[in-house]
Structure formats: structure tokens, C-alpha cells
Design goal:
Layout lengths: L1 H8 L26 H19 L11 E3 L2 H4 L3 E3 L5 H7 L22 H17 L17 H6 L24 H5 L2 H31 L1
Antiparallel strand pairs: 1-2
């Protein structure tokens, strides 16, 4: 038949005839997802209970440092790290054992590789320390770094990531185009400099050989 000829044309080599049965008791293999709305409500209630239990601490957890990704592929991107280094805490004037008690993550294994990153995280710690409200353990005898009863009554629970990374646009420096810039050819200059770099060794060798010939004469 014509249909059989078409089927053979689609085959390759000595394969089996395409005779797949896709409608065998399909109703037994259907997966339903009717519990999704209830699961959504359960997750929402669980988040609310967790936030209530962690009050007055932030819902998202501890303050994290700003670090850069590993390898050349990702090191231009900033992200939140595991914890602040001991050097960063020392520069900010926060004891390493006291930091976790006020919601600051500490990572004793991480090391500072650049001065810029160290200074940025120190400023991040100082900004957090200036804004954080610490409840007194003993309301009758509050310590110097603990808040007063008035501040305690006004305190609210922070939602979302603590001090999230803010994307900053690089500042562009505008320069007026002069007549010299218009007269010159940037492409031609690049080609000349590329040729100079390529022929530098040959030119040095030629000059050295000519100097040696003059000395022989």
C-alpha cells in the first residue's frame, strides 16, 4: 500500500517498523495536582509561624557580607556570602563572639583578598550596627548598647533580605570630540600599533645585525 511505502521511507537500515502504542491505559498514568492550593496555604502559615517565633529578629536571618563569585566567569558579579571575616569584624569594632548574638553571620574560614572588599564590608557592618535595635535581657538593668523601653515598643521586625545588594550604574565621563579626533582614524591607528607589536622582534634583530656588520667593517 501507499501507507506502507511511506513508513518504509522513514526507516533507516534494518530497524523495526515504527509501531508504538501510546494509548495503553493512559488514565492510570495521569498525575493530578489538586493539593497545590492547600500546600500553598500551609507554606504561608508556616512562614508566618516562623516569623512570629523569630521576633524581633529579621525574618530572612543574619546579615551577610558582599562577596564576588569564583573564577573569571563569575568574579565580576557580586553576591551575598556565608559570613564576615574576623578581620572585617575587628575593623568594625565588633567582637567575633558577640556578632552572632546580634544577627551577624561569621565565617572564620573566609579571607580578605582585596582592600576594597574589606572596606566595603566594614562599612556594611557599621551601618547595620548603627541601625540595629538590641532588646535588653534585663529590662530593669539595661546595658549601654541595649535599647530603652521606648525604642523597644517602637521596634518592628525587618522583612526580606537584610540590607540587600543595590545595583549601581557606573559613572560615565563625557568628552567633547575635538577636530584632531575627527581628523585621525582610530581603526588605522589600531592597525599600525598592531603591526608594530608584531614586527618589533624582527626590527630589533635587523638593527642588531646591521650594527654587528658596521663593527666588522
Amino acid at each position: 500500500d501507499d501507507e506502507f511505502v511511506v513508513t518504509l521511507a522513514k526507516m533507516r537500515g534494518n530497524d523495526m517498523l515504527p509501531n508504538a502504542h501510546f494509548h495503553k491505559k493512559w488514565q492510570f498514568h495521569v498525575k493530578t495536582w489538586f493539593n497545590q492550593p492547600a500546600r500553598k496555604l500551609r507554606r504561608r502559615n508556616a512562614r508566618a509561624e516562623k516569623a512570629k517565633a523569630s521576633f524581633p529578629r529579621p525574618v530572612a536571618g543574619s546579615l551577610k557580607p558582599i562577596v564576588r563569585g569564583q573564577t573569571i566567569k563569575y568574579n565580576m558579579k557580586e553576591r551575598l556570602g556565608k559570613g564576615f571575616t574576623l578581620e572585617e569584624l575587628k575593623e568594625a569594632g565588633i567582637p567575633a563572639k558577640f556578632a552572632p548574638t546580634i544577627g551577624i553571620a561569621v565565617d572564620h574560614r573566609r579571607k580578605n583578598r582585596s582592600l576594597e572588599a574589606l572596606q566595603a564590608n566594614v562599612q556594611r557592618l557599621k551601618a547595620y550596627r548603627a541601625s540595629v535595635v538590641i532588646f535588653p535581657r534585663n529590662a530593669k538593668k539595661p546595658k549601654a548598647f541595649e535599647c530603652s523601653a521606648d525604642d523597644k515598643s517602637k521596634a518592628t521586625q525587618a522583612k526580606g533580605t537584610v540590607m540587600p545588594i543595590k545595583a549601581t550604574k557606573p559613572a560615565l565621563e563625557l568628552v567633547k570630540i575635538t577636530a584632531d579626533m575627527k581628523a585621525g582614524s582610530a581603526y588605522g591607528k589600531l592597525r599600525v600599533e598592531r603591526a608594530n607589536a608584531r614586527l618589533q622582534g624582527m626590527r630589533e634583530k635587523r638593527a642588531k645585525d646591521e650594527a654587528a656588520k658596521k663593527e666588522e667593517k
